[in-house]
Design a protein that fits this description.
mainly alpha, Vanadium-containing Chloroperoxidase, domain 1, 12 helices, disordered C terminus, transmembrane, Phosphatidic acid phosphatase type 2/haloperoxidase domain-containing protein
Length: 280
């Protein structure tokens, strides 16, 4: 068992964030924290979008309570299973390995959230204002679209639907997952997959940011996270397809809105090395 509580997840996430920022910038990752605070103090626009992003994340944390208040009894899980059958089971059975499981859990519970924070840290460190705002806006779009689906189009996780025959491999590494992590995400909050949509969002932003190294990092992470949602027995193929579409939409709209929100003089920024890294 690698993880027993959210404390261990938080510690692992903190270390991973610092490592990702360092890999993405090859600079002192602690400097990103200083620049982040400075940007909040000097940029009302960044403060506004960051506050909205934090707000929508808080709204998402209360989604389960709202769901209980609505007391709806829809369940679209049988429909999804009828559509795709045993795809997840076949993939899980084919790849199942005691070596793959801990790596999948690490990317699902640690890298996923760390990459979001690290993305802002990387773009802040490079003073890439377009992509700092684009990240915030894209996350806002992801959650704004996903939350209504979680309320009115409930789909249960694959492992919890007996006919699927899928095992919940998360518990092999994180035995207290249901007690520690589950309150953050409902059992029927599957469609669309936010793990997919946000991973795809960060990948597209990374690839379009001009930082080739960070683009590679976000791409590899997205591939492993998407694989993990199936391997661990959590999401359906349908969830992933919807999440991919949402991620592509959110990332491109995020860049568009960020560019439109900034003044002309802020749209073109130079790396310290002298190379153009945002020529949109």
């Amino acid at each position: 068992m690698l993880y027993q509580s959210m404390l261990s997840i938080s510690i692992a996430s903190g270390i991973t964030i610092l490592l990702l920022i360092w890999l993405g910038t090859l600079r002192n990752p602690l400097k990103a924290a200083y620049l982040f605070i400075k940007e909040l103090l000097v940029s009302r626009k960044f403060l506004l979008f960051f506050a909205i992003m934090v707000g929508i994340l808080l709204v998402n944390s209360y989604e389960l309570q709202v769901e209980k208040m609505l007391d709806l009894h829809y369940d679209f899980t049988p429909w999804v299973f009828g559509l795709e059958g045993h795809f997840v089971k076949n993939l899980q059975d084919f790849f199942h390995s005691s070596y793959i499981t801990p790596v999948s859990v690490f990317f699902y519970v640690v890298v996923f959230q760390s990459l979001l924070v690290a993305s802002i840290g990387v773009y802040i460190s490079e003073q890439n204002k377009v992509f700092v705002l684009a990240t915030c806006i894209a996350i806002i779009i992801n959650y704004t679209i996903a939350i209504p689906f979680y309320l009115f189009f409930p789909v249960n996780e694959v492992w919890s639907y007996p006919p699927s025959g899928v095992s919940f491999l998360m518990l092999d590494v994180f035995s207290n997952f249901e007690k520690e992590y589950r309150p953050l995400s409902g059992l029927d909050n599957c469609f669309p997959s936010l793990h997919t949509s946000i991973s795809v969002t960060l990948m597209v932003l990374g690839l379009r940011s001009g930082n080739r190294r960070f683009g590679i990092i976000t791409t590899i992470s997205a591939i492993i996270i998407i694989f993990s949602i199936f391997y661990l027995g959590i999401h359906w193929l349908t969830d992933m397809v919807a999440g991919t579409i949402l991620g592509l939409l959110a990332s491109n709209l995020g860049i568009l809105f960020a560019k439109l929100s900034l003044k002309e003089k802020d749209r073109y920024m130079i790396r310290q090395s002298g190379r153009m890294f945002d020529s949109f």
